[in-house]
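Reopening this ticket.

The earlier resolution said the output was attached, but the attachment link was broken on my side. Pasting everything inline this time so it's all in one place.
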Amino acid sequence: MSEQTGLRKVFVDANVLIAGADSRSGASHAVLVLAEIGLFQLATCRQVLDEAERNLRKKLPRALPNFALQMSLLPLHIVPVPSPDEVRRWAVIIEPKDAPILAAAVSARPDRLLTLNIRDFTPQVAAATGLIIQTPGEFIQEIRSMISAGLPPSISK
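Inline output:
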């Protein structure tokens, strides 16, 4: 998003990509559309992309074409795989399976980390990492508030 709003990079978890591919009306889909039109840069890691595709193939194969299309349209920033030391650092505050994703998100230095996994990505994790962690719905509500406060979104690179 523009410098006026302060949103430049948003890191997304696999569940956001899955929900965005499965529904054209939800907040996750809205996040993907806003990134596609350039209001902010979407960031993620290879593990997230692999997890999203694997789960779509297994549980929601009908959404695979939408996922493939979205991935082809998004100007996606793929964060390098975190080192084992980086993963271990965060494994003490989050489920081990989520530690690589958290490590990648921290290294991306995003303005927001979006996830539907509020069980593991807790306020305590946010405090420990310094990340602002939101659900897609909370994020979309924040954008609505910014717009209604008179900060029109502008496309910037």
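Reporter confirms the inline version is readable. The helical segments are 14-22, 27-36, 46-59, 64-73, 84-91, 99-108, 123-129, 136-148. DSSP finds eight helices and five strands in the chain.
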